[in-house]
Structure formats: structure tokens, C-alpha cells
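Thread: 2-acetamido-2-deoxy-beta-D-glucopyranose complex, take 2
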Amino acid sequence: MIPSYPRLTAAAALLLAGAVQADSPLGIVYNNQECGLVMFDVYGEFEWPGIGYGDYYGALCQNPNALVSMYASMYTYCLPEEIQPGVDVMASWCEGYGETELIPPSEFAANLTKEAIATLPVYGEGDLPEDSNVTAPFLMSKAVFDITRRSEHWYDWEQRLHAYYTFACYGFWAIVLFFGVVQNIAYKIIESRNGYVYTDAEGTGRAINNAKPSNIFGRAAAVVRKYAIMPSALPPYHQQRFLGCTIPTRAETFVVAAYWIIGIVLGAVNIHGFNDNIFWSGSAAQIWRYIADRTGTMSYGNIPLMWMFSGRNNIFMWMTGWSFGTFNIFHRHIARLATLQAIMHSVGYTAYYFCAGYGDYYYTNYEELWWTLGVAATVVMSFLIIFSFSYFRNKLYENFLIVHIVLSVLLLVFLYYHTNIFDLEDYNYPFLLTACVIWGFDRFVRIVRQLYINLHVRRSSSSTSGSRLQTTKATVTFHESANILTVDVVPGNAKLFPGPGQHYFLYQPLSIVGWENHPFTLAYWNQTASKTTDDLHLQFWVRPYDGWTKKLVKQCKAKGGSTLTTAPAMLLEGPYGKAEPLHTFDQVLLVAGGSGIAGVLPYLLDYVRRVERGAAAGASGRVPTRTRNLTLVWADRNESFIRFIADSTLAGLLNRPDINVSFHLTGSAQPSSSVAAVSSTASPSTDAVDSPVTPAEDDAAVGEKTVQQFNSEKGGVLENTTDLNKPAAVSGGYRIQSGRPDVLSTVRKLTQSIHGTDARLGVMVCGPNDLADNVRHVVAQNMETTRESIEYFEESFGW
Ligand SMILES: *[C@@H]1O[C@H](CO)[C@@H](O)[C@H](O)[C@H]1NC(C)=O
Ligand SMILES: *[C@@H]1O[C@H](CO)[C@@H](O)[C@H](O)[C@H]1NC(C)=O
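Output below.
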């Protein structure tokens, strides 16, 4: 008889696991190819003595009796336009799986005339015993054709949907990224238009005009920014955790939520089963099977995206101008969705085996590598997600990254063997290889950046050192009273363009954990405009906290003095990050908490340089900044640190009329009135002071643990506390106020000053998470809906 569904040997299970075809993506079988495969489904159930006996494809592709039967049935039942595609797909399966050739119908022309076909016997279901030897051609009955065609069609239709829905997810991200690129170009145009003024237009160009009413697009943009782009989805939480979770901005939330909905809906719609399916009798088995295949394919589809959005060198970061933090949010949500899909795939296959009555095979399959590694891959993915929760990231701290990478490599290897049973073009090349290429690209660019910045071969060795090979030299100094490490680096290659908003990764390659690298914001650099022989110095200010930074402190102390010169054993990688266009704003407010000063100070120095460049350009020259007034508010709990910066980097800038700086000493200490009397009260507890600005890229743990002080005094930074009126210490020509600054009223005051004009205010925050979140919240509230009035920037890396 023609069996109602095939026996399931391991080989047949494999075959059904993916109706795969070499030359279409993901083994898609198109509608017009289905009729050809119906022939394999039906005639593959019999034995064909003679040529190819005992070999599934050997018989179907070469045995004349089988071939005449198949072609005669095709000519009888397939639509004329389905015959050639059907023969083609049969040929490609013969080649791909049987490693043999299909003898074409032209070889049997005499046996395939209408008259010859009419002489063939017609067998229906049950007319021939299962597995019986067939020694003459026969035609399948219409009933057998119809039910087999229907079964084949729904299977192939589902397969096509698995692929299309997987590609639809790429379509989603293509749209999101396209929007980002367009937005970035628009911002760049605005920036280049607004980024300068002419000095001869002093009276007009730089004067504040009354606001002209914006056009409808300007207003719409302002409203969107105020309500959709700026605020957190759950104000004021953004940098701060809410119940241990990162809360993205509303725009990010919209993208992520849309992706979850798309992922879940596309994983579950258009799943059909019917009772007489020749492959699987019950609907339940079919439904589980289709769900499992759908989620498995979509999970694979997410893998390249996961890698794409996690790298330091992500071309979409460059194209959209979105931060690492934004892409990291995407990365994590894609990974979670992919893991959910992998779990559904595993659950689905388990349910499928038992619903279809293959329970015995379920257990024996664990002897198969592809099966067992598939199970292992789901487990590895789940652990990747679990270890990425902030609780475990804090526990793993500096080991988070190494654990994450090792598990990711395991995942790719396991998945490779899981889908190695199919053609490489089906899963392994499009998804796994793509992920490897993306990963390799990121690592390659990192190496190129390192080579470029750390090594420089001089043309002549005539210069001072005599050596033609210049390498990076670093000097680390621990300022104990200020509780700050300064890392001064002279990069091997001086042809760099240091600027605000940049960060670099520092490596100590000769230490035991030489691969460890930590991101630090570029706080200061000596810009010798004259390009003399002076070396370029890049400076990083680091609050020692734990791990590597603590080790550096120890190394400094071990040297007896406080200064440690590590040359040449420090390597730089960078620069990363981009400068925010603060020079396009008429008013600029910089807010720093703790060592967050390192993130905003470069903007102040950049402003000064731009004004100088404008002055140098002469009376008719162009001043490359629109800013007329810059305010810096900085709070730290360590007076020595404040004085250290005020007396060095800021010296000479504090009395300018266009720069207002206010220092705030928080915590219990009273400001001393003498610079020299620096208390050596750097008690052990201050080890854990507020936020190191280290943008916590993939060393997230650094950023994680840094919220201590400000968060424990939650809200205090922002409220007008009674401390504010305590006497301020005046020394060295500047005042250090005691108590926390009232940042919110500063924002409101500056907002008022530009209200009703066409001036714009740029606010940049770098500091503890609650500070950033609260300022973000207040800025969003104070944005005007009639025009672009305020913009908010923060120097921090969301995790
Ligand atoms: C089918 O033919 C083969 C040899 O051609 C023979 O060994 C086998 O026993 C036959 N099977 C049946 C069911 O007749
Ligand atoms: C094809 O037709 C020829 C001549 O009628 C006949 O001898 C031969 O057996 C047929 N072949 C098959 C596979 O039926």
C-alpha cells in the first residue's frame, strides 16, 4: 500500500528536519517546485529492484521504472508550468543529497506519450504493500496525489514563511537604521549651519533674536523630541536601574518593544496543521513542528544582529551617530528574544517527537552530535543571558567579558555542528559565518587602531631618542589626597585628533591579565597648535575603585613615590566616541559629578580653543562656535581633587566673563581655606566614591558599581538644601561652595533666559546616574514645544 506516512529512520528524520535544497536560501521550496517533490514523497516509499536498488536517491534518480512512474504522474497531475521547475528541483536534490544525476524525461519520451501513460496501472492507497519490490512503472491515483500535494504544500509553505519572517526581522532593523542615518545626516547639516558665527556680525549675528515661529516641521520635531526622544520610558529612570532593569529612552523602548512584538507574532502566526497529512497524522505534531522550525530559524536569524550591535567597531554606530549604549540595548534585547526562540525551538521539537509518536527516537537522538549540541546551545544561550543580568555581572566584575566571550564562542561552535546536517548555505554560512565575519572585523579594526596609535616608525632616526620605532609611553600618578589616578599617555603616533567626547581603551599587555582593557574618557590633552616638537600628551583621570584601577594604585605605592612610569607597557586603543555639537548652542551648561568632570571639561577647553581660533582669524573671521556663555557646575566630595583641577587645567579660565564655574564640595568635609592644607583623609571608604567616568563599554561592571555616593544621597544633588548657604571657601581666586549644587534651578534659570528667543541651550551631564536621570527629566519638562530650545547630552554608557 502507499503508506499514510513514512517510516522514520534517523535518516528520514534528518531529511524531514529540513526539506533542504542547495540553491535557495534556507532550503526554501517554491510553490511551483512542490509538484516535483510530491513524486519523491510517493515513489520513495517503495523498493525498486535493478538500478539503484536499496539506495533512496540511487533508485529515484536512476531507476527507469521509478522515473517513468514519476514523470508519468507529473504529466498527468502537475500543471504544465510546474513540470520544468519540478524536474529541476528533483535534479538538484539528486545532486545535493544523492550525489547522483537525475535522468531527464527526454530519455523516456517513448514511454511518456499520452498513449503509453494510458496503459500504466493506477494504484491508490493500500493497493501496493509498503516497501514492496516494484518492477514496472505505475501511476499514482488522483486521491494519493491530492493528499500528498496538500501535505507537501503546507510543509513547504511553512518553510517559506520561516525564511520570509526571518528576513522580515532584518527588514525591521533596516528601517530603524535607515531612519537613524537620515536623522544623523539632518543633524550634521544643522550642525554645520549653526556651528559658527562671524565676528563682524557681532551686533546682529550673535545677538539674540526674538524667536520666529517655527514652521510645522520644526514644531513637530520639537514635540517629538520633548515627548518621544528625550525622556526615559519611565522617568526619571534611565541610567539608574528600576527594579534592577535598565530603562531605555522612549524612542529606544519603542524600537525594542516593536521588535519583541514582531518577533513573537511572527513566531506564532500562520501555523497550520490538518488531519490527513501524510507526514504526520495529527495536527498537534504538525503545529509543534512548525513552531519549532519557525522559532529555530528566527533565532538563527538574530545571531548576526546580536554580533553586529555589540562591537566597538559597529559601522551602524558610525552611520547613525547613535551611542554604544543604544546599540547595546538593542543587542541585549535581540539576544533575549533569540534565547526565548531557541527555548521554544527545543520545547517545540520535544513536543513534536512525542505528539508524532516518535518518542523512542527522541531518546536515541541524544546519541547524535547535531541533536545533543543543539540542546547544549540552548543551554549556553540561557547562561549567556543569565550571566548578563546585573547581579551576575557585578559578581563576575572584570571576568564578565571573558565569560561572555567564551560562552559566545561555544555557542557558535555548537550551532555549527547543530546545523551542519544541512547544506552550509542554509544556516551555517548566512548566519554563523556572518557573525564570525562581523566579529573578525571588529577585532581586526581594534588591532589596526592599536597598531596605528601605539607604533610609529620614523623616517629618520635623527631625532632625540635615536630609535626609529616610537612606542606609547605612559606615566601613572596616584594623587593620594585627591584620590585620583592620572594616566598620562604619550601615544607612539602623534598624528591623532584628540577631542571632546572621546574615549580610549587602556591595556597593560605585560600584566597577567594583559587582554583586559578599560575604557577611559579623554580628560585633557595638550594641544600644541604650533606643532612644535612637543609630544602629544593624552590624560585620563581615574578614580581608583576596584580591580585594575586598584592594582595601579598598588603599583604606584610600591614604587615608593606616588608616580609610576609604566613605559612602554601600556597600550592605547581608540579613539572611540564622538563629540557632541555643543558649539552649536548659544548657551551651554555642563554638569559634572565626581570624576565625571573628565567627561565635560574637554568641552570647556574646546570652547576656549574655538574662541581663540576665532580671535586669531581677525576681524572678518569666522568664530567656530556659536556659544556665548558657558556654565560649569561640578560637585565632588574631595576638596583636593577640586583644587587640583581648578589650579591646573582651569587656571586662568575662571575669571572670564563668558565662563561661569561653580565648585561644590559635597559630603561631610568643610572646604579648607588654604590650598595647601589638603587633608589626607582619603579614608578607605572613599575608595568607592562616586562615578568614575569610565564609559563602561563592555567592562560594564566598572560602570555598574559606581553609583555609590550620589545614589545613597538620592535627589540631594538636585535639591536646594540648607547646606547651600553655608560659608564658601575662597582661595586661589575661586570659591568652593559647601553642599550640593541646585542643578535643577540652574537649568530652569538658563531655560528662562532663552525663553521667547531663538537661542538654544545645550546641557551636558557626566556623573552619577541619578544626577543624569534627573537632569534629563527636567530638561525634557522644560523643552518648548514650539521650537527646538534645549538639547540634552550625557557622557555615559548605558547598560
Ligand atoms: C525484493 O527484491 C530483492 C532482490 O531484488 C529481494 O532480496 C527481496 O527479498 C525482495 N523483497 C520482497 C519483499 O520481495
Ligand atoms: C519504455 O518503452 C519501451 C518500448 O515500448 C519498453 O520496452 C520499456 O520497457 C519501457 N520502459 C519502462 C521503464 O517502462
